[in-house]
Amino acid sequence: MEIGRVGVWTWGFDHLPWAQVADAAREVDELGYGTLWFGEGTGRDAPTQSALLLGATRRIVVAPGVVSIPRHEPTTLARAERTLAEAFPGRFVLGLGVGAKVIADEVGRAWTSPAATMAGFLDAMDAARTTAPAPATPAPRVLAALGPRMLELAAKRTWGAHPFLMPVEHTAYARERVGPDTLLVAHQNVVLDPDRGRARETARTALAGFIANVHVAPSRWRMMRQLRGFDESDLADGGSDRLVDALTAFGDVDAVTAQVQEQFAAGADHVCISIVTPEPHPVVGLAALRELAPAML
């Protein structure tokens, strides 16, 4: 499957009516980005939205980044995966993640070892009985992987790893652990604004949710501390400059492109960019994507 070098990752769809989502997806497709990644929260469920996006577009690969497995049954998810792979050959990637304890608690599932939970879920998907027509090629899977055990599982059991909202040092760390042949998809927040001070404040606002909930998913913060030497002082006052700078590429087109190239230099095969703006909720960021496309693609 060809997912391209640069894709788009967005939370923006959850706030839009479907007609606007379809129009935005078609434009991202026409701009030439390789893959359209979207988060699964409490809006549209990932298999349904994947089907809608695939039907609305012509060429682009669609990938939930990622399906939160506590919210899904492995058998029904396996059937959806097979259906989408058969109906849209070479255009669907299934991203899977264990989520967080708070999500498991919401749906009444036990929270145990993340790597063991994911391995068991993969086993159950592989064992699922389905009589639907088989796709010519099964949909590849990627795992939301940060630490060594999940990265190892991604390399052994799936096409690759998809770390989310991590500094470039984690890309190098992940590449060392998954080896040279495993797909590594890095996520990168982007603020397209030549005013550095204003861009940093936009980025800081966008990270407010992460900072407020940093201990909900402690493995992410633990890894950031290990790789960059962050401490609790970096979470104060909306986030230190060094924390914001580590998690965001900002500046004009040349500056942003250079920072995305750092992800490739660190070992990423594909970088999915999330456009951050001063808007009070996540947006797709079509204006920025239009401006970046000639330099990125």
Automatic annotation (TrEMBL):
Residues 17-270 form the Luciferase-like domain. InterPro entries: F420-G6PD/mer, Lucif-like_OxRdatse_MSMEG_4141, Luciferase-like_dom, Luciferase-like_sf. One of its GO terms (molecular function) is oxidoreductase activity, acting on paired donors, with incorporation or reduction of molecular oxygen. It holds the Pfam family Bac_luciferase. This is Putative F420-dependent oxidoreductase. It comes from Pseudonocardia hierapolitana. The lineage of its organism: Bacteria, Bacillati, Actinomycetota, Actinomycetes, Pseudonocardiales.
